Amino acid sequence: MAVIVVAHSKGGVGKSLIAWNLAIAKNTPILDLDYQKSLVFANKFRINNDYKAIKIMQPTSQKEFIDFLEEYPEDKDIVVDVGGFDSSTNRVALFIADIIITPVNEDMQEIAGLIKFHATLEELSTKMNKKVKAHIVINNVNPNSKDFAIVSDFSDKYELYEKLNTVIARRADFSKAMKEGLGITEYTKDSSNKARQSILSLKKEIDIHIKNMEKIDG
Ligand SMILES: Nc1ncnc2c1ncn2[C@@H]1O[C@H](COP(=O)(O)OP(=O)(O)OP(=O)(O)O)[C@@H](O)[C@H]1O
Ligand SMILES: [Mg+2]
């Protein structure tokens, strides 16, 4: 099992959007620690449109969260959508993650948010005596933007960050698909091809990371 945790202590960066699309692309359930429950709504639209519901688990306590993962089948992956706030359950999610995905765009404000989240990762790493690293994915940027040096330079400077190559642009088709209860990989509008490719690219990068990790673990 690989636990893919989409996390950032800053709100509104696209965690739920990415968790939703990634879980559908990978055909895995979602563990929802985001109190806004936006994915539950998307799932309702999905059911209304006669699609098979996504499994969304919403543990009500830290214990329920840990118990759930302990009983989870070894051969399946799971996507965890962490709320945009710091809490002990969210920290447990960061600690047990096989990979942490942290969405950001190139706004200065977002970069400042990354510094704060890095401090949390550092604190957790020290406490748990293990390097808790996050993979930055550029999300919700203007489709014409090409230069993300500011983010690359930043991740080079901070030990616990690594930048993924995938860039997910701001595209209306993401929310259009979600309003129909669909992931972008299920959405067949011609316009959605680039959005679809970006999610598939993220999935590929994550799958490679998981494979390498399994090799190291033997
Ligand atoms: N790549 C994108 N293209 C278009 N819209 C996007 C993209 N990424 C995020 N958004 C939009 O930005 C808003 C915030 O996204 P989302 O709810 O996924 O953020 P979040 O990090 O989960 O927020 P919270 O911390 O509050 O849970 C949503 O309206 C979402 O549709
Ligand atoms: Mg969210």
CATH hierarchy class name: Alpha Beta
What is the count of β-strands?
A: 7
Residues in helix, %: 40-55%
Biggest beta-sheet profile: 7 strands, parallel
Q: Classify the fold: give the CATH topology.
A: Rossmann fold
Give the radius of gyration. 17 Å
N-to-C order of helices and strands: EHEHEHEHEHEHEHH
Mean pLDDT: 94
Second-tier CATH architecture:
3-Layer(aba) Sandwich
Strand order of the largest sheet: 3-2-4-1-5-6-7
What would you give as the CATH superfamily? P-loop containing nucleotide triphosphate hydrolases
Which key terms come to mind for this protein?
Rossmann fold, about 220 residues, binds magnesium ion, about 15% strand, binds adenosine-5'-triphosphate, seven-stranded parallel sheet, alpha/beta, globular, about 50% helix
Q: What would you note in describing this structure?
A:
Helix 5 links the parallel strand 5 and strand 6. The chain has a single domain, classed as Rossmann fold, CATH 3.40.50.300. The relative contact order is 0.19. It has eight helices and seven strands, in the order E-H-E-H-E-H-E-H-E-H-E-H-E-H-H. The protein has helices spanning 15-26, 38-48, 62-70, 88-96, 108-128, 149-157, 172-179, 193-217; strands spanning 3-6, 30-33, 56-57, 78-82, 99-104, 134-141, 161-169. A seven-stranded parallel beta sheet has the order 3-2-4-1-5-6-7, with helices on both faces. It is an alpha/beta fold. The model has no long low-confidence stretch (mean pLDDT 94). It binds adenosine-5'-triphosphate (ATP) and magnesium ion. Residues 15-16, 34, 36, 38, 81 line the site of magnesium ion. The site of adenosine-5'-triphosphate has 19 residues, from helix 1, strand 6 and helix 7.
